[in-house]
Design goal:
13 helices; Aspartate Aminotransferase, domain 1; binds pyridoxal-5'-phosphate; Aspartate Aminotransferase, domain 2; 477 residues; 2 domains
Length: 477
């Protein structure tokens, strides 16, 4: 018997938003793989349009977005300048195979190269791809080509994507477990997560014990990473996010990265700075690693480069690693790698950054937001920790003791915000949150960098409402 054809949902004119949602979900359930997404929501929501800090559902209910597509939309939804640049490029040169050149690619590469030179005083080149994980894959090839090594260090709680190579250096075993042997699985080093110190130390007295544990690994060959006879290590690179993104916006203490970098430099281990989530002014600097006084050998970037428009990612690497004699044509290649629509929007985004005052405004807004979160913490002991750097802010949800992780409360907050049934300023509203962290109990806040003080106040009002309602309904008790 031949299978039943699925209903055609294109003809949907006379349906109410509720009927349309029901119909679309029924078809989605039949025709869409869930493998390319994450169905965190109990009732997946359909959205119709977006603007600034807001998404609007099929009933036109506004949802204040405090995660901006995991920090891919740093300049706000439907940013007029970015939209215009895309439209201009569509009319000018919408398609071009990437072995041919177009001016926007060169201008964008030049801006990125200059930004690294300004931020880190280093000379290098950039190279494009499409998604974040693909840029990570390209960086792995670059590391292997230069060092001939396939073993990497990475952090516990780190996230670098879900292609095969990126999964090998991403901490979660859950992402690898169904897919067989990963011979190149990274060695995962504890990240300095001071609120829950992996070594049970206190920041005031620990003297960066965690960094010293990394130093210790190189003391003798019997710790498994070094041949002291020739000074060679088995490891090609250390992959690091400046602040952990998916790991819950955890920020390392001052001085930590410097120690790690010094050891790596001594043994020829390259430093790969994954700026895919924290780059592009999320933390108040164009590159988040600029806060931490180290010089990466390779930087990978994606997401907010195009403000979430036509996908474009890439990497920057030091000249001696990536010059054409070392890394020639075809070393990595993808059909869409330097696509004209992505490079044009990326160029506009970088120009907006140059024209703006993000290095001042983001820390100022971040400080204001953090202050409000600290006040909220006084009201709700279930907020165990609040912290942040620029507009990368964290709110760790716990039980009443303020420490035992409460995934249940964080999940309930996420669902409650997405229900679109909140009330604020005389309006029905929703709140878009993202949950991360090692225990999936951290609300990772990444609002638009263009968020206003008034919208921050609204965000705090909605967060307060969501926590109060979830507690009343028994979550996290
Ligand atoms: C730090 C980091 N690296 C890599 C990736 C993978 O990027 P993509 O999802 O575009 O493949 C992400 C995505 O969230 C990320 O946050």
């Amino acid at each position: 018997m031949s299978p039943q054809p699925v209903a055609n949902t294109l003809d949907q004119e006379n349906l109410s938003p509720q009927e349309l949602t029901k119909k679309l979900l029924a078809v989605e359930n039949k025709v869409c793989s869930y493998g390319d997404t994450v169905h965190y929501a109990k009732d997946p929501k359909f959205f119709k349009h977006c603007e600034g800090s807001y998404l609007f559902d099929l009933e036109e209910t506004p949802y204040l977005d405090l995660q901006m597509w995991y920090s891919a939309v740093n300049l706000g939804y439907a940013n007029p300048r970015v939209n215009e640049s895309l439209k201009r490029q569509i009319d000018q040169l919408p398609q071009l195979a990437c072995q041919y050149l177009h001016p926007e690619k060169i201008h964008l590469a030049e801006k990125l190269v200059n930004s690294v030179q300004k931020g880190f005083g280093q000379v290098g080149r950039v190279h494009f791809n499409v998604g974040g994980a693909q840029a990570v894959e390209d960086s792995l090839k670059l590391v292997r080509k230069h060092t001939r090594k396939q073993h990497m260090f990475a952090f516990e709680g780190g996230y670098h994507g879900r292609t095969l190579g990126a999964s090998a250096i991403t901490s979660s075993y859950r992402y690898r477990e169904p897919f067989g042997e990963f011979g190149d699985r990274a060695e995962f080093i504890p990240f300095p997560y001071c609120f829950r110190c992996p070594y049970g130390k206190e920041p005031d007295s620990c003297k960066l014990y965690c960094a010293q544990q990394f130093v210790r690994k190189f003391e003798t060959e019997y710790y498994g990473v070094l041949n002291p006879k020739n000074g060679k290590s088995e490891f090609g690179a250390f992959y690091m996010e400046p602040l952990q993104g998916t790991g819950g916006y955890v920020k390392p203490p001052e001085g930590y990265f410097e120690i790690i970098a010094e050891v790596c430099k001594a043994y020829g281990i390259l430093l790969v700075d994954d700026e895919i989530q924290m780059g592009f002014f999320r933390t108040g600097k164009l590159w988040a690693m600029e806060h931490f006084g180290i010089k990466p050998d390779i930087i990978v970037f994606g997401k907010a480069l195009t403000n979430g428009m036509n996908a474009l990612s890439g990497l920057w690497a030091k000249e001696e690693l990536i010059n054409p004699e070392q890394f020639g044509p075809g070393s990595t290649h993808s059909t869409f790698s330097s696509n004209t629509l992505g490079t044009a929007t990326g160029l506009e985004v970088m120009t907006i950054f140059e024209d703006g005052d993000f290095e001042t405004s983001v820390p100022a807004k971040g400080a204001y937001f953090l202050e409000q979160l600290q006040s909220l913490q006084k009201k709700h002991p279930e907020i165990g920790d609040v912290d942040g750097l620029g507009l990368a802010l964290r709110m760790e949800m716990c039980q009443k003791d303020g420490f035992t992780p409460s995934r249940e409360l964080a999940d309930a907050m996420f669902q409650k915000g997405l229900s679109g049934d909140l009330q604020a300023r005389g309006k029905k509203m929703g709140l878009i949150l993202d949950i991360g962290g090692y225990y999936k109990n951290v609300v990772t806040l990444a609002p638009s960098l263009t968020i206003t003080h008034d919208e921050i106040d609204l965000g705090i009002e909605l967060l307060d409402q969501v926590i109060t309602l979830c507690k009343k309904e028994g979550a996290g008790a």
